[in-house]
Amino acid sequence: MINIVWFFILAFGILFGIITGRGTEVSKAIVASTDSTVKLVMGLAGIMCLWCGIMKIAERSGLTDKLAKVLRPILKILFKDAAKDEKAMGAIVMNLTANMMGLSNAATPFGIKAMQELKRLNKTNDTASDDMALFLVLNAASIQLFPTTVISIRAAVGSSNPAETVIPAIVTTTTAAIFAVVLCKILEKHF
């Protein structure tokens, strides 16, 4: 659906430029934007490689494991059925830890594994369990300790301090995660 919306926005803009006699300006703008887009993507690729390397060091140094140990007792309180199953809990902890550390590529397989484990524990096959819904909410409203993508984009466009968003990101994502969990717990009693 969004592809259709973007197509009509672009088509309308180009058509409007041609009708108003600004076709040359439109074509110059298109060429200029493609040039700046390629430069941005190339800059982002390098910065993302750097962050992936840093996060891999954090993973291999045991920092993510330490974070997982802190999370495990909290998550055992939140998840009813999954708290009793070590496989499900392990996948949930690893997914959330990877997301917190900005390792979204590493988080995806753990997220898939966590959902598979939660599905195995689910008593009804056609309906998501409360634990499945809670995991999905926590995954979507994940606390970000290192918002690597935002830092990378800010650095690529020449920000003087690309990491100044770290503290606001921690505060806002923590607040969002807390509210999401509270709302999920309230709604699971009614549905």
Please explain how this structure is put together:
With 191 residues, the protein is an all-alpha fold. It has one domain (46-190). Helices cover 79% and strands 0% of the residues. It has 8 helices and no strands. It has helices spanning 2-19, 23-61, 63-78, 86-100, 104-121, 130-140, 148-156, 166-190. Helix 2 (23-61) packs across helix 7 (148-156), helix 5 packs antiparallel against helix 6 (130-140) and helix 6 (130-140) packs antiparallel against helix 8. The longest helix is centred in the N-terminal third of the chain and has 39 residues, at 23-61. The chain starts with a helix and ends with a helix. The chain crosses the membrane at residues 6-24, 36-58, 88-112, 133-153, 165-187. Keywords: Membrane, Transmembrane, Transmembrane helix. It comes from Clostridium thailandense.
Relevant terms:
191 residues; mainly alpha; 8 helices
Shape: globular
Poorly predicted ranges: none
Number of domains: 1
How much is the average pLDDT?
85
Task: Give the number of DSSP strands.
Answer: 0
* C-alpha termini separation: 30 Å
